[in-house]
## 1
Amino acid sequence: MTAAQAMAAATARLRAAGVPDPARDARLLLAHAAQVDAARVTLIAPEDIAPEIAERYDALISLRAVRVPVSHLIGERAFYGRRFKVSSDVLDPRPETETLIEAALAEPFASVLDIGTGSGCILVTLLAERVSAVGTGTDLSEAACLQASANAVLHDVAPRAEVIQSDWFGSVRGRYDLIVSNPPYLAAEEMEDVAPELRDHEPRMALTDEADGLTAYRVLAAMGPAHLAAGGRLICEIGWRQAADVVELFHLAGWSQVICLHDMDGRDRVICASTPPVTA
């Protein structure tokens, strides 16, 4: 069997299993099985596939057919031009979160705090883009902290990055120019409707607060000011239908200049807020 024939068979198998974009996944997994760059798959397509590669490929396709995410199978995911190591212990970096990155980089900062850092993709990206900045990432999950620390090493920002296990701001000390967060924002009732890749293979605590989806924003709005320097900013990702509720929460907590930014699909995605004015 040639590589092209194997890909065609794998695509048909994934399509029958209801996998979105099966041809793309079949190509990426063949590249991983053959240990070649995905861009070179077309070059090996006419060649016979070696038995050991065929065996690895079949195993990968079997797992993808039961909706194990491609990123978990190959162990990494692209985000803002970099490759991040991921696993079932952390939420996959997603393109819409790059909206948060762009908002954060729009103004200078010397220090950043990432609440719920997960894979560390936000913290590491911001430190990689701002080579003089320092930062801290927190996560309740010890496994996530280890993953974030590994990605900090991978992208050469570890000397400027501290990753600590913490429940929200519980173990955080000091003040920062910038606080960022992509918290769990799905309501408990929404979990049954999410894709199997998320529901069955990503950490539930990174997806939902098991309540109305707004718990994180109440915490950020209430506790954020105590950890922001004067003139500091807080930027957080939201669910695309949450903008009005989250903006109201921040306004009620006294934050100023609360605005909502859209993602690449034109959906509400990121809330930006400035430090509440100091009261006498």
## 2
Amino acid sequence: MKTLTVSLVISTYNRPDALEACLESVRRQSVLPIEVIIADDGSTEETRQTIERLAGGFPVPILHVWQEDDGFRLAKIRNRAMACAKGEYIVQTDGDIVMANDFIADHIRLARRNSYAKGVRVRLEKEISDAICRQPRRKCPTLFSKGLMNRHKALRFIPLAHWFACHFKKGKAYGLGCNMAFFKTDLLKVNGYDEAFEGWGREDDDIAHRLYRAGVAMRDIRFAAVCFHLWHKENSRDDMKENMRRCRERDETGVIRAERGIDQYL
């Protein structure tokens, strides 16, 4: 997989300070993606200006894919962004994530055909999150930094990561939108994200379950591809109950392809 071409898709909504810190962590990667695609779910002008300012001296092209703000439509903007991806492997994260320097390299190292990767995230307390946003070029946190809420997930140990990827939770399928990776061909098999999922929650589990039903296994890549989640107030979860029902319904009926998915943008 050393020659794997990677497109990095970063979703964002009106957090330009966090997005800048995220992009600075991309700049520090030991292995760079071939492009960065910003999946913007309706941010204001300040986000566009931040992207344009950073894009000029960035080591890889940055593409800004924007849609009008009409509520939480993360599934739709991810589909639109992924449809533009030139890489054969798509690594997905969020604009409030700061990536350790080997994040992309680890995803490449652990990628396998007929599989998708699901990592973990380290949650940061508000104080360290605010400090990172004030100084986006500061070094990425480490296992030993102050302000880590689930410190054990910051441990990077590649031999153990290889073992877990092959054995841990075998036969299960879970999603975590801020640290997932897919072969684009596998995304096309299931028609990407299901745009019926609007509002916060479960769109990641839905695509994971549909990939699994299509014969694409999950590889749990904890102990590698470490990333840090900047603190923020929780999003509204008013739509969570309906999205859980929708996900359960698709599981019961065995749906594989999203009815409204990525094929609209290809």
## 3
Amino acid sequence: MLAMAAVALGFASCSEDRDPVFHPAPEGSFKVYEPEMADLYITLEPGKVIELTCNGQPDYGFSAICDYSAELSLTPDFAESYTIEPLNPAQSKIQLDQRMVATAITTLQGYTDEEQEPDYVNPGFIPVYFRAICSFAGIPESRMVSNVVTFNKIKSYFSIRKPGYIYLVGAPEGWAGPNPGSEAHYADWCLFEDADKIDSKIYKGTFDIAAGQAQFRFYTKLDGWDGSSWGSQVNDSPVDYELVGGSFAGKLVAGKGSLNFPGWTGGKMNITVDMSDMTNVTITIKAE
């Protein structure tokens, strides 16, 4: 009988493991620890980070991967705030790119356009307030807001949020090479995010491509031929495609294989590269 009871308990336990039940975490249970650098003088620099360390995942009744982010404000009451996505949204140690922190501060100071830079007044070292956010995608009730912590002496700089972009590299621009310092050459060969969808990682561009010149791939950085290349395949060899009914849809992989459209008769191509899911990068092309 004891053995049967143990087996029954085992089945019950397995059933509970298979069917986790969400419940809201207790209010105030999600916290950010006081930062060690709270009273240090911090001059923001691109490429460096500010860290917020949380006490772990809130008690939702089960463990799963959460989405972490942070809110920043220039006042402790968070009357106005700015949300920043961390470098790794799945980690409870939240690392914030200092460039994004500068952008948040600039925006909260009332500057929203590049043309305002000559009017920018840097207030020097100021207190900046942070709090962390944790949630499960698709469950609004899971959103937890932490306590507020303060970095008392942060000096920012003028930084405006701009649409991201990638580069089209290939026959249309003359295979000049995606090398450092070639930004001017590739200024007319960029695909941009929509201005109202910054950080979407969906890039769009329209290019006038001559007949016989529709061979290209894409680079996320100008860091050399062997750098951040996305194309038809890993190997450095083109793959032929065709537009059916004036359109094409396919996938891109990290590699140097170019996309080639030998039947292209010339004209404008509308190209969209969707990198919102880096495990499933797609390309869509439409002829105007």
